[in-house]
Write a structure and sequence with these properties.
Elements (H helix, E strand, L loop, with lengths): L1 H16 L3 E4 L5 H4 L3 E4 L3 H6 L6 E2 L19 E5 L4 H12 L4 E6 L1 H11 L1
Length: about 120
């Protein structure tokens, strides 16, 4: 009985730890960005129009998208964003499947950030 309870508890813990993590792009502070790798998965043309400070541009549509992460440790925290959130969610899922341990999708994308800045 105790063993069954322990197994169930561990299973619940593993499931909750394995959940995909996300955060609103408007809630990200400059301080926390100093401790993560920030990846913009939009096209180079979109990136040139505007992007977050210190973001690396790794285009989701590039054939070698995965290979461009070869220099990034799988233990590092990675924040990904795109224009509205669709590509970054796909990129996050891909990176997690490749074994990256802490990939955070910045929900709302650059559009939400740009809109938030314009409202202030």
């Amino acid at each position: 009985m105790r063993l069954s309870f322990l197994v169930i508890l561990l299973l619940i813990f593993n499931i909750s730890c394995g959940q995909i993590k996300s955060k609103s792009i408007t809630e990200v502070s400059q301080k926390e960005l100093k401790n993560v790798i920030l990846i913009d998965v939009r096209t180079p043309e979109e990136f040139m129009v505007g992007h977050m400070n210190n973001a690396l541009n790794i285009n989701w549509f590039d054939e070698n998208f995965v290979e461009q992460f070869s220099e990034i440790s799988k233990d590092k925290t990675i924040y990904v964003y795109c224009k509205a959130g669709v590509r970054s969610k796909k990129a996050q899922q891909k990176l997690l499947a490749l074994g990256y341990k802490n990939v955070i999708d910045l929900e709302g994308g650059y559009m939400a950030l740009d809109k938030n800045v314009k409202q202030k």
